[in-house]
Automatic annotation (TrEMBL), chains A, B:
Belongs to the Casparian strip membrane proteins (CASP) family. One of its GO terms (cellular component) is plasma membrane. It is found in: Cell membrane. This is CASP-like protein. Its main location: membrane. Keywords: Cell membrane, Membrane, Transmembrane, Transmembrane helix. Homodimer and heterodimers. The keyword Signal does not apply.
Length: 154, 154
């Protein structure tokens, strides 16, 4: 079986999954540092999606570690399809969450409205959180593409 | 050559392109009806992306009409790849634009801030515009998938 770098069970895939976990945890961290995130729907959406991405990426990174260091079970097309669909859906959701967070953060940081909506100087963390979510989306999308590339070879 | 319904040059593809053109025009229309859209970055982004989607979908719908009623030139893998990449990029951009518009529109329609940010009762049009942009994204993504399906058969 050909090894596609970045597909399930390779060290490149482990690096991608680790990056996803780190960036989505950072995004969640920056968002939850700002105490009043739950008053904005977009921010709650981001927290929900990052709360889905973190366990997903962490589980798959453990699978990669097991595969690299112990032994790799045969990849079945059914399981690969589930992983691809999961990556696909989560990458769309994290792009949507990152975009809406970026939109709202930009609005909150506009000089005219900042004094009204952001009195506590917490708002500089929102764009950081959105940026981390964008990076997480990018890595999820890369994982998805590498796994799709592998699928016809199974 | 197999005909994949929805791929370039079929009547289903024409229907998809027509839907994209209609929904993105509607999204642009609802956004531009509200006079002060240019004070929000997310709304300017939506207007830019919809301004790209409309000519793209309209051109490809004309190609489909020519293909259905006159004669279909042979599909070259290079041209199909350009169309797929274009659909792909535009579908990501329109998802991002629709999400950020939805996030900002929701913030503007929140009862607490509505009186400050939306004094002119224009704001009900923003969610409509975001909904149209989501529909346009969905159809663009469908076109992209159908064309990818066709690519290995060329």
């Amino acid at each position: 079986m050909d090894e596609v770098p970045g597909s399930l069970g390779t060290s490149a895939s482990f690096a991608l999954r680790l990056g996803q976990t780190l960036f989505s945890t950072a995004s969640l961290f920056f968002m939850c540092l700002a105490i009043d995130f739950y008053s904005y729907t977009a921010f709650c959406f981001l927290v929900t999606i990052m709360g889905l991405v973190i366990p997903w990426s962490m589980t798959l990174s453990l699978v990669d570690v097991y595969c690299v260091f112990v032994r790799c079970p045969s990849r079945q097309p059914g399981i690969m399809t589930i992983i691809i669909v999961g990556d696909w859906v989560l990458s769309f959701l994290s792009l949507a969450a990152a975009s809406s967070t970026a939109g709202v953060a930009q609005l909150l940081l506009t000089p005219g409205s900042a004094a009204l909506l952001c009195p506590l100087k917490h708002c500089n963390r929102y764009p950081l959180s959105a940026a981390m979510a964008f990076l997480s989306w990018f890595l999820l999308f890369a994982s998805c593409l590498f796994n799709i590339w592998l699928l016809p070879k199974l």
